Amino acid sequence: LCCALISFQLSLNLWVGVLLSLLVALGIGFINGYLVVRTGIPSFLITLSTFFMLRGVNLGTTKAITGTVATDNVSELDGFASARAIFASDVPLGFMTIKVTVIWWLVFVALGTWILLRTRIGNWIFAAGGNAASARAVGVPVNKVKIGLFITVAFLAWFYGMHRLFGFNTIQAGEGIGNEFL
């Protein structure tokens, strides 16, 4: 879906498309979390069925807007250089060059570790995953924690998508199809 949104805003500022795709990703994460909490259906089934639906919507929307199943070359849009610097640049360290993605990965791992091991929310995550009924009994907002985790995963998936888009200047709408169970 991000492919279609990025392609749609060719006449707009690049950052509008990036933020719009972030909002869509967070909304999908919220919907998945909400469906898991409200229906009690296992999250694997909810996320897989949502993926199957969005896969078709993504391909259809991208094809309808761009006439193809890939985004146009986004390197010509205003703001591309700054977006590439954030999501997909190379960082020279004197004796070697690393991708900024490695730095982002280290930041996300450090942040996630700190949240899980040093905050009340981290304790809530462990409690909700261990035994939801016991966690509720001691005052943990289990439903909010689960929905928040789905939104967090959606954010990280969006971030990865932006890395792929700005790393290659284009992206196929059907990328990853057939790899659902790998």
Number of helices: 8
Global morphology: globular
**Overall residue-averaged pLDDT value:** 87
Secondary-structure-based class equals mainly alpha
β-sheet strand percentage: under 5%
Which stretches of 5+ consecutive residues score pLDDT under 50?
none
Distance between the termini: 21 Å
Lateral arrangement of strands in the main beta sheet: 1-2
Determine Rg (CA atoms, Å): 19 Å
Structure overview:
The protein is mostly helical and 182 residues long. The chain is 70% helix and 3% strand. It has 8 helices and 2 strands; from the N terminus they run H-H-H-H-E-E-H-H-H-H. It has a two-stranded antiparallel ribbon. A hairpin with a 4-residue loop joins strand 1 and strand 2. Helix 1 packs antiparallel against helix 2. The longest helix has 27 residues. It is globular, with a radius of gyration of 19 Å.
Give a quick rundown of the structure.
This protein has 182 residues and is mostly helical.
Question: Which keywords apply here?
Answer:
two-stranded antiparallel sheet; 182 residues; 70% helix; 2 strands; mainly alpha
List the helices and strands and how they pair.
Blueprint: H1 2-8, H2 14-39, H3 43-66, H4 80-87, E1 90-92, E2 97-99, H5 100-118, H6 120-130, H7 132-137, H8 142-168
Antiparallel strand pairs: 1-2
Helix pairs in contact: 1-2, 1-3, 2-3, 2-8, 4-8, 5-6, 6-8
